[in-house]
């Protein structure tokens, strides 16, 4: 017994020493475990060398970081496990990359370098990327991210560091709240919801409207707000509404519900890959039932603007309409030599003015203009101030609308018929009203190709209307897909033609040069007392709130 006690005490002592050592080592073990977990996350996101990228800039250069799902970096987009957002960042990348080869960026390229980062459309990856970006003192600005979800979480860090951030794609209105360093290019979802609701009720005459929205993790920040705004506007017309996610889900119940309830208009709020998945399932519900089931017309929100959306709507057999903040009226002069490489996944490339490339191009251009304004006195705060300055408004961008600082109220959302060049002109009319008068409703007379013989016929119709109504004036919207000089020349020829009629004077005709799809001319009629536009050869500067007031109000939509 006497021998056992010393041994017992010795064992207890050794045990205490071991436990104490383990307790002392625990924080180090925990830190090591945490570091390894973080390293694993970086590898999963494909950004394990991001720190080196952000430090590798030349000592005399600042960095602009471009972030989005599909942005071309070392990890090709096709190797990434994308979620419901269908790599809109690829279009963002192509627009930025093209702008990097042209003025104004080439004018400052000796001072600024671009770093491209693919966040995979994943919120955790976006968080990690933004945390590394704000640690890099050379970062002078950010362009991105692509989805609302990734942008929302990354902005929390960019706000802390006061990094100038241009948002080229994400459209949720709440993103810019309390963010003095945030600048959005496209319009927002409060405006988009109004256009979708107006189109569903007043154009497609929907009576049995079915609303579905993308509730997947990466999409819900975008789609939930949008669908709720649509419901607020036309809730009485919406017979059913249903969130959807990727399989497994109860597709059979949902698809039968849409078809058996005689749905005439289907509104989809979400991203492109989900739209493709959903429409693919829906088409089988109507196969063999053509004699007693009429397919609904489908309105897709702007998040569904993916490379193969035209093919999807054609193959699946639906009349599809897409809302989008750019209305194909953008100038294409800067893109005359644009020949992008083949996108990943072998997709057919969409037309430039129909995608977010145009906003990527403008984002880098705006940074470049603002940077040049600083004349060598560079800081994040000064660049923010330069981006908010009025001097930027005089610079010509591909997206020819007023860049609103801090909070975007631009109301120019449009609806396309997918697979054609058709665009609804009612929003042009509202736009004209907001520029010329607060009272009149613009009347659309017609449109013609600048090279077609029908142009003189339409001008004759216009002349007869002006002669019979002395209180009316004409607004001729002229555009050309090559040079503004050509559009100006055509406007002059149209004016001379109209002045050949004795009762028409020059004061009764106004022109908008550079507005209109391709080389089309569109003719509108307004009261003679309507004020002239702020800029005689360009109607583009306009307050978005004025335009919103010309579109149907929520009360009118509900009444209709």
3D architecture notes:
The chain contains 18 helices and 15 strands. It has a six-stranded mixed beta sheet, with helices on both faces. It starts with a helix and ends with a helix. The protein is flat and about 120 Å long. It has helices at 4-45, 50-55, 88-99, 105-108, 123-135, 148-161, 189-203, 220-234, 251-260, 272-286, 309-316, 357-373, 380-387, 426-436, 454-468, 484-499, 544-550, 554-559, and strands at 62-68, 112-118, 139-143, 165-167, 182-184, 209-214, 238-244, 265-269, 297-300, 320-324, 414-417, 443-449, 472-478, 509-513, 520-527. The protein has 560 residues and is of the alpha/beta class.
Summarize the structure.
With 560 residues, this protein is of the alpha/beta class.
Characteristic terms for this protein:
560 residues, alpha/beta
Side by side, the strands of the main sheet go 7-6-8-9-10-11
- Roughly how much helix do the residues carry, as a percent range? 40-55%
Low-confidence stretches: 75-84, 329-353, 404-409, 533-545
Question: Can you summarize the main beta sheet?
Answer: 6 strands, mixed
**Mean pLDDT, all residues:** 76
Number of strands: 15
User: In angstroms, what separates the terminal alpha carbons?
Assistant: 99 Å
Helix segment tally? 18
Task: Note the beta-strand portion.
Answer: 5-15%
Structural class: alpha/beta
- From the alpha carbons, calculate the radius of gyration and give it in angstroms: 28 Å
Query: Which overall shape is indicated by the principal axes computed on the Cα atoms?
Result: flat
């Amino acid at each position: 017994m006497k021998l056992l006690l010393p041994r017992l005490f010795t064992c207890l002592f050794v045990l205490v020493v071991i436990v104490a050592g383990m307790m002392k080592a625990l924080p180090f073990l925990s830190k090591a475990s945490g570091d390894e977990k973080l390293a694993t996350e970086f590898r999963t996101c494909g950004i394990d060398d991001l720190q080196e990228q952000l430090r590798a800039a030349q000592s005399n250069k600042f960095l602009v970081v471009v972030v989005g799902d599909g942005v071309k970096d070392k990890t090709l987009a096709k190797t990434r496990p994308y979620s419901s957002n269908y790599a809109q960042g690829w279009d963002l990348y192509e627009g930025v990359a093209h702008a990097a080869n042209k003025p104004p960026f080439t004018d400052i390229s000796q001072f600024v370098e671009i770093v491209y980062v693919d966040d995979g459309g994943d919120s955790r990856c976006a968080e990690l990327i933004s945390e590394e970006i704000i640690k890099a003192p050379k970062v002078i600005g950010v362009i991105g991210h692509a989805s609302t979800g990734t942008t929302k979480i990354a902005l929390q860090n960019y706000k802390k560091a006061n990094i100038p951030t241009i948002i080229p794609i994400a459209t949720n209105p709440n993103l810019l709240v309390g963010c003095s360093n945030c600048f959005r290019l496209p319009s927002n979802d409060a405006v988009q919801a109004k256009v979708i609701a107006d189109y569903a009720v007043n154009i497609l005459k929907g009576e049995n409207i079915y609303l579905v929205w993308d509730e997947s993790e990466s999409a819900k920040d975008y789609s939930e707000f949008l669908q709720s705004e649509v419901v607020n506007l036309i809730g009485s017309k919406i017979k059913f509404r249903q969130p959807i996610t990727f399989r497994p889900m109860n597709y059979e119940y949902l698809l039968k519900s849409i078809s058996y309830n005689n749905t005439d208009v289907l509104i989809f709020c979400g991203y492109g890959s989900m739209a493709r998945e959903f429409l693919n399932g829906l088409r089988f519900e109507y196969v063999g039932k053509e004699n007693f089931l009429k397919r609904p017309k489908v309105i897709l929100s702007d998040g569904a603007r993916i490379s193969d959306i035209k093919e999807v709507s054609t193959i699946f057999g639906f009349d599809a309409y897409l809302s989008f903040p750019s209305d194909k009226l953008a100038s294409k002069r800067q893109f005359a030599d644009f020949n992008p490489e083949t996108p990943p996944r072998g997709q057919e490339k969409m037309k430039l003015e129909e995608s977010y490339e145009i906003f990527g191009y403008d984002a880098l251009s705006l940074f470049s203009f603002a940077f040049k304004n600083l004349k060598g006195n560079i800081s994040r705060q000064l660049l923010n101030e330069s981006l908010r300055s009025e001097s930027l408004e005089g610079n010509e961008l591909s997206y020819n609308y007023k860049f609103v600082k801090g909070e975007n109220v631009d109301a120019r959302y449009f609806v396309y018929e997918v697979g054609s060049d058709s665009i609804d002109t009612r929003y042009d009319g509202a736009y004209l009203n907001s520029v010329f008068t607060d009272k009149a409703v613009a009347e659309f007379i017609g449109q013609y190709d600048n090279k077609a013989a029908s142009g003189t016929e339409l001008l004759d119709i216009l002349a007869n209307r002006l002669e019979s109504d002395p209180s009316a004036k004409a607004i001729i919207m002229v555009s050309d897909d090559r040079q503004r000089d050509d559009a100006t020349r055509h406007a002059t020829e149209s004016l001379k033609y109209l002045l050949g009629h004795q009762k028409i004077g020059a004061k009764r005709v106004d022109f908008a040069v550079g507005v209109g799809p391709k080389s089309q001319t569109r003719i509108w009629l307004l009261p003679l007392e309507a004020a002239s536009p702020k800029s005689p050869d360009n109607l583009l500067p306009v307050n978005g709130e004025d335009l919103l007031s010309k579109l149907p109000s929520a009360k009118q939509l509900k009444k209709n």
